[in-house]
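Q: How do we represent a protein-ligand complex in a form that can be generated token by token?
A: Start from the inputs.
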Amino acid sequence: MRVDEKPIYEGTFTVTGGNFDNAGEVSSNIKSVLKRMGLSRDVVRKASLVAYESEINIVSYARKGMIRLRVVPESILIEAIDEGQGIADIELAMQPGYSTATDKIREMGFGAGMGLCNIKSFSDTFLISSEVGKGTYLKMIIKTNNRSLNS
Ligand SMILES: Nc1ncnc2c1ncn2[C@@H]1O[C@H](COP(=O)(O)OP(=O)(O)OP(=O)(O)O)[C@@H](O)[C@H]1O
Ligand SMILES: [Mg+2]
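Then emit the structure tokens for the protein with adenosine-5'-triphosphate bound:
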């Protein structure tokens, strides 16, 4: 993705930690935006999953955060940025099945420990960094395989 490239879409969505009542709303909005662009179903599905898992993690483990969406003809960039507890051992957190989810989170149906590893496998580029006590940053790029898009 070229930095100087004019995006077809650019938006920032805020996510509130602990707010399970609205969990999934941001990724649902992101999905609607992407659907309107004439992207392939597979690409929309991948980007929506990545946004959804990132959003649920912010709700579950952070104080507050945001998801940034930037679409250019060749790719979709999704960034999840939060302020919160951070992740001490990223390699461990990435392991399928690893979860620190509380009972409350599990009651909501989350906590299988599959979010981060699914985000990685659905992304063409995946980057994660985190600082304990500060927050976590995820960067995902999904290729659109499109030459031209309806804006
Ligand atoms: N944004 C975040 N801030 C702090 N810790 C996080 C964050 N995202 C993930 N983690 C930590 O990494 C672990 C693994 O995350 P992952 O999304 O893979 O699984 P999960 O959220 O526990 O369960 P699932 O996503 O399957 O519902 C979490 O249990 C949590 O300890
Ligand atoms: Mg998760």
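The longest strand covers residues 62-72. The chain has one domain: 13-143.
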